[in-house]
Design brief:
By secondary structure, the chain is of the alpha+beta class. It contains three helices and four strands; from the N terminus they run βαββααβ. A hairpin with a 6-residue loop joins strand 2 and strand 3. The longest helix has 16 residues.
Length: 94
């Protein structure tokens, strides 16, 4: 069953460029993973600094395999450290 993963982040002012580098690195790795279908990054119009990534996967299990992979964890830890807070995840299925 296909899944949509919502990834929410609050980006402090001045951290956008450094975050962009890490997100591009993460996106390149993600695109090569089995089950990955698509992804898009949105910036909230009425709340500066708030961003949302919508990632589509063939199944929740394939996303979980990716999210628990060593390569992803290493980058995600850098992201959370840069932002000073944990990234939020929500999983939705069809």
């Amino acid at each position: 069953m296909a899944a949509k993963i919502l990834i929410k982040r609050q980006v402090p002012e001045g951290k956008e460029a450094a975050l962009g580098v890490l997100l591009r690195e993460l996106r390149v790795l993600t695109m090569n993973r089995e089950g990955y279908i698509s992804g898009e990054t949105l910036k909230r119009y009425d709340r500066p600094g708030e961003s949302l990534v919508i990632s589509t996967w063939a199944s929740v299990d394939q996303w979980r395999t990716w999210v628990l992979s060593k390569e992803r964890i290493e980058i995600q830890e850098k992201i959370d450290q840069l932002l000073g807070m944990k990234t939020e995840y929500e999983i939705y299925t069809y």
